[in-house]
């Protein structure tokens, strides 16, 4: 065999993975781990199971995330960030404040009132004391983003005189807790079905009306929220 033929047959050295390859692998691992965590819980989904599901070695899993707890945190925060970026409102042409709040409630609850998110919520509740930093990150990463969306709508309505609010951010926290968090928590606890059906929509509509009744302008004073 000539030297030229040997050079042609010599295997090429593999280069370092590109940034795109690394991101694709991370996304694949998170998707695999998400299915296991939501089905089996944190304790029931082992690092070996995650590696097998993702078809990678456990060494690769730990090299990328450091621990199973880090994988769990990344799964939850990635789920929240991906969905909220897709749902982020770009404004609404609805004529009244009730309709504008209804639009954002629909966006959030069509995502949150599903069996998938009910499973996620159960896992997160079970691990909140064990991983307090994760609970804090979820609060800042998810809840506070939704609050800011609603606060922007409420502040605009206050400026137009539709509502009378001393603190739109505080009012938005009450709205999100009443209209969004409460039904999500009921679904996670099995007290209502994890579905945004007609009954759920009617309940949410009544919740929005109740919230607005306390925040509309009055002659004597404004809403204390």
Automatic annotation (TrEMBL):
Residues 46-65 bind DNA. PROSITE patterns: HTH_TETR_1, HTH_TETR_2. Transmembrane segments: none annotated. Pfam families: TetR_C_7 (PF14246), TetR_N (PF00440). Residues 23-83 form the HTH tetR-type domain. GO terms for molecular function: DNA-binding transcription factor activity; transcription cis-regulatory region binding. The keyword Transferase does not apply. Keywords: DNA-binding, Transcription, Transcription regulation. The keyword Transcription applies. PANTHER family: HTH-TYPE TRANSCRIPTIONAL DUAL REGULATOR CECR (PTHR30055:SF146), HTH-TYPE TRANSCRIPTIONAL REGULATOR RUTR (PTHR30055). This is TetR/AcrR family transcriptional regulator.
């Amino acid at each position: 065999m000539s030297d030229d033929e040997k050079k042609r047959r010599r295997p090429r050295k593999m280069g370092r993975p590109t940034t795109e390859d690394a991101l694709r692998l991370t996304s694949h691992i998170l998707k695999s781990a998400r299915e296991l965590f939501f089905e089996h819980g944190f304790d029931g989904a082992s690092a070996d199971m995650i590696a097998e599901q993702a078809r990678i070695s456990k060494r690769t899993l730990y090299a990328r995330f450091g621990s199973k707890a880090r994988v769990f945190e990344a799964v939850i925060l990635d789920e929240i960030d991906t969905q909220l970026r897709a749902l982020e409102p770009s404004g609404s042409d609805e004529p009244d404040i009730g309709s504008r709040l209804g639009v954002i409630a629909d966006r959030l609850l069509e995502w949150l009132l599903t069996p998938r998110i009910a499973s996620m919520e159960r896992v997160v509740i079970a691990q909140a004391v064990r991983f307090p930093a994760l609970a804090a990150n979820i609060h800042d990463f998810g809840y506070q983003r939704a609050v800011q969306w609603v606060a922007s709508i409420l502040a605009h309505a206050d400026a137009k005189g539709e509502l009378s609010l001393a603190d739109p951010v505080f009012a938005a926290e009450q709205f999100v807790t009443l209209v969004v968090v409460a039904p999500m928590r009921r679904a996670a606890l099995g007290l209502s079905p994890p579905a945004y059906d007609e009954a759920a929509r009617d309940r949410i509509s009544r919740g929005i009306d109740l919230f607005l009744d306390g925040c509309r302008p009055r002659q004597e004073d404004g809403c204390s929220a």
